[in-house]
Amino acid sequence: MTLPEALRGRGALSRESELCKKGHHCIGDLRLFRRQNWFGGSLALALNRRRGDGKSVVIGRSGSRLSRGLGLLTLLLVLFSHEPAVAFHGIWLPAFGADQAGLAGAFYSAYGSPLVLEENPALLSRLKGHTIQTSLAVNQATIEYRDNYLDSTTGTYYSNDRTFRPVAPLPALGYGYGGERFAFGFAVYAQGGGGAGFEDMLRAYPAAESRADSVPSDSVAGNQNSLAKEEVNVRFAILKATPGFSYRMGALSLGLGFDIVHAIKRMDRSYHHLETGALLPGGIHYRSDSAWALGVKAGLSYNWENLTVAASFTSASRFYLNGDMRVDSYSDPSTSGVSRYMEWPARFVTGLEYRAGPYRFVADVSHTLWSYSMNSLLFSLENPSAITPLGTKSPYLRMNLRWRDQTAISLGIERRLDQLVLRAGYSYGATPQTQEGLSPLLGTTVEHHISLGLGWFFGQGEPSSVDLALQYSLPNTMQGVPFSEWWLGHALQTDPLRPAAFQFEKKTQVLSLYLGFTYRWSSTGG
Question: What is the pTM of this model?
């Protein structure tokens, strides 16, 4: 259950360190003037300090030891882009490759693609000779968050209306070779992720001791009417590298792939004085170490004269996002190790392709088991520092997301005009987020997606191509409910214990541009 900062004991931050006595802005100490599950999820994030000029600088370490490959690419996506990897079906991208994106994520290229390893390795059997495929998805999400708060006991009122527009580049690269019966390939791709960042949100700041330059210690303490500025940021990205192969026996093809999964996460929450902007105690900062996991996927496809059907299964992958957690305070600096795991969900996909002259009609149905992997996440601290509703300290923090399983349907049509290909598609999948687990920081609310695509083929035999697609995820608004995680973290007050009137909603829409290039060349043998 989420616990507001107001439930912590008064005077917990009464002692200053030597640096604070000398006038420095110092933070540290795991005084969890914080809630268990602070934002409908979680615990959090990077070490954030205030410089002498009042500006924020992130000085926390990621805990990762990344030197090459997936680790480096994931770190670049998360840390250097300053934007989350925004995904649409929950936190799973709807398409991989510009050709597939033009069909709203349904099926794959008629000439074969190494990026089928993301979903169904059996479709490698379509490759003839060598193929290299590259793709870049540039996603711009618009995440709108609104809330209003009224505490009739104290007369405290505020409202927030914030919009966050991240732009996230998500690459994919694959190579494959197809012979007479046997085909193999390797693909690296950003499969999903999420996050958001909101600044200067008004919050009812609980009784807390503020000790910073030019900020009186009693400016906030003991005043339930006091407001502070809250800043929250979450970044999560997951990359996969998948080698795989397929074997064709007449009309039937079987495929097997092995996923190497890399994930990294960071979360930040901080409070600042409403007037001076000085950093206040109570912020939470978390950096995960570099996390790795393994998974497996299997698929099959069967061809008739004008029809192909396919099915695949991707296993769940469990990775351990252990790391460090620190809480802002003016007491002795202290950092606690955090251990936690997360599972990227299992997924089932069935699809078909029907060919009629220059037309190709495709459809996919996928089912993702979010309810198991994103129902509740547990953080275990090395030190028993989390404050419970009874005032005792606990070494555990639980993040209740309450996601549900998601079934998504994708439909696409393709028309070949000599060297030009026109594509269009539509996809629907009810958001896995629930009102009980809704928060502005993780997961999208979008459900309907439309796409248009264009391809240009060149070369002899199995043609190479340049592909372009534009996908729009229509806006969708969800409202939170009382006693949800986010509600409990912002509505519950003490002295006396009471709920304030608190309402909030989240709206998301996404515009994506896909650029792709596929080069094919023949080879003897196979």
Answer: 0.80
